[in-house]
## 1
Amino acid sequence: MKQVKAVVFDLDGTLLDTLDDLADSMNDVLARLDFPVHLRDQYRYFVGDGMENLARRVLPEVDRTDEMVRRVSDEMRVEYQGRWADRTKPYDGIVELLELLSRRGYILNILSNKPDEFTCLMADHFFAGFPWAQVRGARIGVPRKPDPAGAFAIARELDLDPCQFLYLGDTNTDMITASSAGMYPIGVLWGFRTRSELEQFGAKTLLAHPLEFLTAIDVNVHRAPHLLRSLANSLSC
């Protein structure tokens, strides 16, 4: 029997609340190009699948040409470079969760559809000192989530079976990725999407706060709250 040894985290909406900086950056790009801007909460459904998909979703349908999508995506990269840390912060309880997992010897990883340079930059800035084994953003030549290629690459680099990973994310993209890779999908309710979306796309456990995860790995399975019992039961494969 193989024990769970590693955790994969999504970045935006799971570790970090990035919505304000993403929305502000893209709205400024849209305004400069004379396109309509969007409300902050609309970005909950625009983000999560990479920069080009974000650009495509925010544009009026009639203007979604390949050329315009590339232009908006490129300008967003430049705009975001100057403001990615303005209002972004870790969610309450995330730092404590990472500290506990690190002390317990779990191998920590990040897998994001955010461009790789931003993913690495933000991991270094907000979570300096944590022993990340793999930090992977969107890379040229590697399919983005929900394709499981990135998740498989993490498992391969660590010489672990995918079933030895827990995977925490806040969107359908994450749940599909985890399930397709053979990792245990945990949906987080503090992020950008809804409980119903996470359940529909395969979350086996739902967490309302990071501290619930701490409880799940601390409490004996027979005394675990029923919401977390499936997680406690699954800590081996």
Note: The radius of gyration is 18 Å.
## 2
Amino acid sequence: MLKQQARAVAASLYAADLASTLGALAAAYLVRSEILPRFFPERLTALYPFTVYLVLVGPIVVIWTGLLFLSGAYRSRRTSGLKDETLLIAKIVLGGTVVLTILVYGLRLDFISRPFLPLFAFFNTLFLVVERIAVRMVARKVRAQGYNFRTVVLVGDTPRARSMARLIHDHPWWGLRLLGLVRERPASSEAGTTAGGLPVLGSLEDFPTILTSLPVDEVILAVDRGDIETLEDVFLMCEEMGVKTRLILDFFPHVFAKVELEEFDGTPLLTFSTTPTETGGLLAKRVLDVGIAATLGLVGLPFAALLALLIRVSSHGPVLFRQVRCGLNGRPFTFYKLRTMVEGAEGLLPEVAHLNEHEGPVFKASHDPRVTAFGRFLRRFSLDELPQLWNVLKGEMSLVGPRPPLPEEVSRYEKWQRRRLSMKPGLTGLWQVSGRSDLPSFDQWMELDLAYIDNWSLTLDFKILLRTIPTVLSGKGAR
């Protein structure tokens, strides 16, 4: 019965999401055709009839349906916050809009107005968030009044069990009703007593009777790490009776990694990861990397050819500088730059090592004599980084991420600093837009890179890309 109700709720939400998405399509058309031309009459031409834009309905339904279900938008979200759901919606809309934009331009649907798709994305996000807020308000009101609730039994007389009980008590809109607590071992006084204000239903010896005598929807296991092995019978009994079982996973209190459950051909695994694992968001990041890098590469090709010619004229040596750098988790790859130094500059490093202005395993000097006059100009405006668009297209780098270090630098890293290798390196990153080489401490660079990894989102990537533009144009912090 509960599964049927869950399916009915998911189907209703899906229908509401599609209605909101198609409503956003109509709203975007209305704003573009009726409102924006009043403010920009000379820039915006008349649109094709709305019936022509209905050609987008089919692709939108297919793309959004796939993204909504793949992202887990219809899983039970009793205990998740509005912020998490809003971020999920934003990622779905962004990913869907990127795919839709590629489709529109790939099929040469020139009748689609350029401002239309961003408007559609804005209204789609707005409508979906408002819809989910309304659903949450109704659900919370219903659950707070004692309807649509699930009964819960806590197993374990531990601090984490009492902490979970407080969470359930403080969030009545989750729709969870706590029946009581089951102790791991019998005590001198048992059922009918309380532990930390919770009614004690008995011990694990009484668990079969508790399950059959009470309407239990869920069991939450909150025992100490050493008692896990004693819970096999509890798992098997709950499985046999169709009762959902949850296990609190804070056995390693000092571990801050995200914990996820995965399955390898039927074998369940607990995965601890300190890097982003959102498949949809990472896929959208890669799509954006390829799209933007390919566009910039094609547009900038004539300019790059001119720079190559000037490099050959201004100094002796090859145009491109190739160097082995460390990529994702230390994978070596060939890193490309326009040459800005004299030929054989790497061999001259010991002679200029005393000019190093920074701490840690890096070399940065404001007046490095190995840099050519034209190379200094290229570095000032980061034009020497243009060939790294090829690294991005090959998948060795991303547009945004920690900068790729040299192997000899990595060999001198402390353990905590190696975590910056856990995400694909980028053309630009948080430390580049926070002062670049003007940051005096190597540890500051590391902390900014780790802050980027810990707080990664597509929104953060867009912010960094936008901040990169004035940083590059000003030449601030360039070496």
Note: DSSP finds 15 helices and twelve strands in the chain.
## 3
Amino acid sequence: MGIRILVPSDWEQVKSIYEKGIATGNATFQTTAPTFEEWDDSHLRTCRFVDDQDGVLRGWAALTPVSSRCVYAGVAEVSVYVDPAFSGKGVGYGLLNELVKASEQEGIWTLQAGIFPENAASLKIHEKAGFRILGIREKIGKQQDTWRDTVLLERRSKTVI
């Protein structure tokens, strides 16, 4: 089937992929997956995708607004999660590209991502998709009593100007 819009009935598989990301320790500061309602409320209603291979979700991607201030209405944070069983197969890059295209159609002018420096695969696909490194956010948050850095990346649309 390929990449398609995420629908509520995908939640159990989306949640499972998210939980696998949490377990790696290099995907998010979160320690538990939210409920669908919490996830749904925190993400944009558009720009939500899954990679569906015959009913098995290989990954998902979505956008979160960075601020409620109107000046930042066109700025969103990227989330891309891939089931480890499908790592290295182009799933993450495909989802990220779809997210970039859809975000521009929605009038979003800047995408940003905060990625742990140890997550080389995520850094690679973001740079390949046109994101640039802005810098390192040193000791931005604690994970299991250890301060962690994140790499801040940004992609400015060339079509939404």
Note: DSSP finds four helices and seven strands in the chain.
## 4
Amino acid sequence: MLINAYCTHRNPPSLEFPHELIGSRDLSDPELAEHLNGFIGFIMQGGEREMTQTLYHVYRHIERVQNHLSLEVEDDHLDAFAAWAWEANAIVFLPDGSVCDPNGNVLVSPEDGGSDPEAQVPYPDDALKRKQAVSQDLHALKLQPYEGLPPVIGENEVDLRSAKEVARRAIALMAVAIRAESLGSGQPIPVEEIRERLPQAFEVLSPVEQDFMNADSPDQQSIINHAWRYECLYVLQWALGHFDELHFPSAICDVPEVAGDILQRDRDEMIAEAQLRPASEILDEVDLHFRLHWIARQASQEGTPPPAGLDIGVIQERRVALNWLIRFENADWDDVDCPT
């Protein structure tokens, strides 16, 4: 049988069963990204299919694919293939046009997009355990996360930004937040003064940030948006080990403490010596804020106060930083999305 396996594992295990490998590629092949976009279009029938929970999970899986293998496997060895595919965190595409889980249960039927009741989208063990642990912690706080939300990316899938890139981005956020705060207070700090104090920031400003810093009189919404970046900065400082923990997102960060941490450091040394926390700790916060965001948005849609004093603005900004850290959808800073 010809099988196309789509693995989210960065380094899939070796194929220790009889097979004929037709081809394999990873994200270093620029054609794979285009192929995966086409695959998403296929399962969604060009946007004509109504999104279901299973389709959403398959959609997100395809977005995270890092390796694509085509191989011939005899029927006698399909059980061994299935064991490999679960470990590689792979879904499979079969010659009949169906998208299946490693056991061959249909996730997306070519006829109507339906799925078998027993079909399961694969997730890494650590991602499943993380979702369970976070959900239990939230229930202990009398919060009710939506169980249909998928786990977030696992440790063997994630490709974190480099520590030096994170440190540079933190300094850039400091620069734009300082300007926004000064403009909002009616005592604007000249951009050249900020450039002199934080020259490293101006080497990595995003296009939107560059426009903000270049504008003589930024509009009010732009000022507000960039003042919120203290919350993103706080997350990156935590990821770099500058702070021991992220407090529960029911209030804004301690702005003087956050700003002081950057301004009192030798920024060149900060970049050169930057180190990230373990991926597991970062992913714990990614999962937590994903579920908290859903809870806060649900309350907003229902017109009720967010439970436990959740501040949806704080959560939103934290997720921007966290999703950028884990390269969610491979988005650049200005394009980071935070869906729930």
Note: The mean pLDDT is 97.
